[in-house]
Structures are given as structure tokens and as C-alpha cells.
Amino acid sequence: MSDTQDMNRRDFVALAAGIAAAAVCAGALAPRVRGDDATSAAVPVGSLSDYPKDGLYMTYEKPHHIIIARESGSLYAMSSKCTHKGCDIKLAPTNDHFICPCHHAQYDDAGKVLHGPAKAPLFRYPISVDSGGKILVDTTQPLGPDHWKDAGASISVASA
Ligand code: FES
What we know:
Elements: H1 3-29, E1 42-44, E2 55-57, E3 66-71, E4 74-79, E5 90-91, E6 97-99, E7 106-108, E8 113-115, E9 124-125, E10 127-129, E11 135-138, E12 155-156
Antiparallel strand pairs: 1-11, 2-3, 3-4, 4-9, 4-12, 5-6, 6-7, 7-8, 10-11
The structure holds FE2/S2 (inorganic) cluster (FES).
């Protein structure tokens, strides 16, 4: 075997090992993909029939910290974690705003701050509907207010 052939074989083995290592790293670092497979980050939150009218739904507040809101023909998902220090907020007795029991921040029904000490609104999450009509919420991708109107930040009630 010539030196050139030997070098080419060594280069090939090194290249193949590099590609394999890169593939393993890419898989480990890739964002979780929404869907209903076993490795999905999506949380199923029922179907459209579970949200028959406008309002706030706390069904998935425990254990997933998800609040579903239906408003004017669309559904969106909010985090129930206060943006001040992360306590679980509670729905006020009037059902139209949220109160944090820890330091008394208040948020309106859309998650915007009414009273501090919280400064930032509640995070929202991407929401989608799978082919079987199951509504899925991706809690790994919190959305600030700049993204609340993005595609995927809400679903049309007609599409669910
Ligand atoms: S953790 Fe909610 S107001 Fe402080």
C-alpha cells in the first residue's frame, strides 16, 4: 500500500468519525419538535369541545402550569408562572384577572401586568392542533409579547 493510499484511508476514517460525532451532537442539541410521539415536548390540552366559550380555562394549570384562554375566535396558551419570581398565579374570584399569592402582582385576562412587582407579562406558548383534533402546547418555547401575534401563537377556533 502506498503512502498516498494509506493517508487517504486515514483521512476517510477521520472524516467519517467527525461526521458521526457531529450527527450525535446535532441530535442532542436539536430543539424538541412538537408532535405526539413519545419524545415530544408538546403537552396535550384536550380538544376544541373542551373550550366551548370565551374565557379562561385552568384545567391544565396543575401540573403543567398552562392556562388556556379563548377570546374572539381564537385559543392561546399562557404560563401560570408569575414573571416576578415564578410563583403560580391564581385566577381571581371575579374570573377576569390573575393574582400572584407571593407578592400580589396582578395580570389581566390576557396576561398583561396590572400591578407590580411583576414587570413582564405572562409568557405564552406555541399552540397547535394535530391531525386528530388534539390541541398541543409547546412549553419549551415561551413567547414574549413581541411574538403573541406570530403564526403558531394562537389557533383559530374554526381550525381546531
Ligand atoms: S412571585 Fe409573583 S409577585 Fe412575586
